[in-house]
Amino acid sequence: MIEDYPRTLLEMERRFVSEQVCRQYLFDLRWADGFVCPRCGGRTAWPTSRGLWLCADCRHQTSVTAGTILQDSHLPLTTWFRAVWHVTSQKNGVSALGLQRDLGLGSYRTAWFMLHKLRRAMVRPGRDRLHGTVEVDETYWGGEESGVIGRLTYEKALIIVAAEEDGKGIGRIRLHRIPNLTKTSLHGFIAEAIEPGSIVRTDGLPAYLGLEDYTHDRRVQRRQSEGEHLLPRAHRVVSLLKRWLLGTHQGAISSEHLDYYLDEFTFRFNRRKSASRGKLFYRLLQQAVQVEPVKCASIIRPQDMV
Ligand SMILES: [Zn+2]
């Protein structure tokens, strides 16, 4: 399928003017190779007057959002599309409050749930693992960040970072929260995030020892010189992440929500060289119609803020 997306806000506004247009766009993303009935696998369907598709084989009616994160939403697709544009078109993304204001949403809570649903779509199912030479490092979030506005009453969270080496620069990244610095946690993350056979570069933490399917490049700090870091890429990612968490979200992120923010940061970072912001809009909507639905109840309630 040719990647078809709006290049500018004006193009997006002019194009996605109705539920019907949005539904057709999602249809093309979800069923790029043609309709597949979720019940019988039939390949032929007709649109109904209620915006559904009627399977020609089993007569089952389905919607383009059924089974995705967008199902059961009371919000129009035109609003979702605008939210996706806002999230993807701004370099640093948006906060729930920003989204509420920009889209004129009725409540902060609605904006918050939209952002959290969209974040679930930011991790592509079955995405490729990192490979080549990958730096792995750990950091803490919360507790004593400087510049945090407001209270910080939650516990510190431990975050593990993997950053691919790309010449002198950084390739793709993965971020995850881990419960502790045990061998199980560290090795588990590495197995999930990095292709076997890669070179894994870590600090001297003993729990990293015994990596079986990788070449382990263990860097033990002997001399600390100012401005130098043994894992410069991972270190750089950590500082960008913290700046983003403190800037866009003003540090108002509790540790139980942190995973979603890490996913958003990763989504954005790994696509930072995209030629067009519109392409991120396209990718996020594409992934939104690929993933499993989330019940609001399974998302932890928004913090009492604003
Ligand atoms: Zn069917």
A few lines on this structure:
It is built from nine helices and eight strands.
Please explain how this structure is put together.
- The protein is an alpha/beta fold.
- It is 34% helix and 15% strand.
- It has nine helices and eight strands.
- It has helices at 9-15, 19-30, 77-89, 96-103, 108-120, 183-193, 232-247, 258-270, 277-288; strands at residues 45-47, 53-55, 61-62, 133-141, 157-166, 169-178, 199-202, 215-218.
- The strands form two sheets. A five-stranded mixed sheet has the order 6-5-4-7-8, with helices on both faces.
- α4 (96-103) crosses α5 (108-120).
- It is globular and about 70 Å long.
- It starts with 8 loop residues before the first helix and ends in an 18-residue tail after the last helix.
- Mean pLDDT is 85; it is low at 146-153.
